[in-house]
Amino acid sequence: MSRTTVRTGIREIEEGVELEDVERVRRPGAGRKRIEDENPEVLVRLEELVAPVTRGDPESPLRWTSKSLRKLASELLTEGFKLSPQKVGQLLKGLGYRLQANVKTREGTDHPDRDAQFKYINRKAKDFLRRGEPVISVDTKKKELVGDFKNAGREWSPEGEPDEVRVHDFIDPELGKAIPYGVYDVGANEGWVNVGVDHDTPEFAVESIRRWWRRMGRKLYPNAKELMITADAGGSNSYRARAWKLHLQFLAIETGLKIVVCHYPPGTSKWNKIEHRMFSFISLNWRGRPLVSHEVVVKLIANTTTEHGLRIKAALDNREYPKGEKVSDEDFDMLMIERARFHGDWNYALLPPISS
Hints:
- The protein is α/β, with parallel strands linked by helices.
- Helices cover about 35% and strands about 15% of the residues.
- The chain has eleven helices and twelve strands.
- Strands 4, 5, 6, 7, 8, 9, 10, 11 and 12 form a nine-stranded mixed beta sheet that branches. A three-stranded mixed beta sheet has the order 1-2-3.
- Helix 8 (about 240-255) links the parallel strand 8 and strand 9 (about 260-265).
- It is elongated, with a radius of gyration of 31 Å.
- The model is unreliable at about 50-65 (pLDDT under 50).
């Protein structure tokens, strides 16, 4: 309280004023007027200051600005409006603004058939799951340097005893890197991660799927006749990669499965289920821990679980996968490939040999 308020209270006590006789602490009309009531123009000027850096739907009740409150208060002061940063924050909230950081969400121009492809994948996956056929989501997780390098995040440890890591992130020529290629079983909520050490190639991608099938898939789906794969449009499982289709053909011949592939449209990789149903939890599990060896990487992945029952298996793949594999026109024309009517470049199937 201010000294004036204390003196007023002392005087009222000396005069014998009873609390029940006091209906208000402050006289009607007393107190400092709000600046927005005295000068509504301050709201107009504040809106003009944040307008160039406003993001979000202008019609939405919630918008946000990247300008700091202190900077806005300083700019308003030059125009004769004396406000504290806290007051600027109150005014912005009243106008429907929030202070937020940049968020990585835009991945490029939307394809005109983006929504139609999502609907196609959804219908296809529902049909497979209804018939008890496996549906998997595949992708390569971010490559990781192996060694005592800094890993984002924090973990509990004795106070003042953090893990000491290298200052510079230069690849260790002996330890190399880890390339986790993941397979997420949508129906069973289970995952497989093949941790490679060489290159992320189409052959490596298909080998990862093969190892999932051998170690997990065929036990869960002993009567399966088809396998549905959802994948990004780029990377080692790109819809443009001939080698990806060639090695899938080999897998179809080996397993006897009809392998149906559906690619997410370009620029929509974050919608791939493996990203938010498996990879995100792996990142949380090993946050703040230096990945000092390939064995540590494999164990941390395999120990990842969730409250919803996610179970993951992982193994190290020491094979070499040379880059730049070429597939001739003659070899490509021999593929038993069946393209869908809708976007046959994104939706196609590799057929197994016809059994006699």
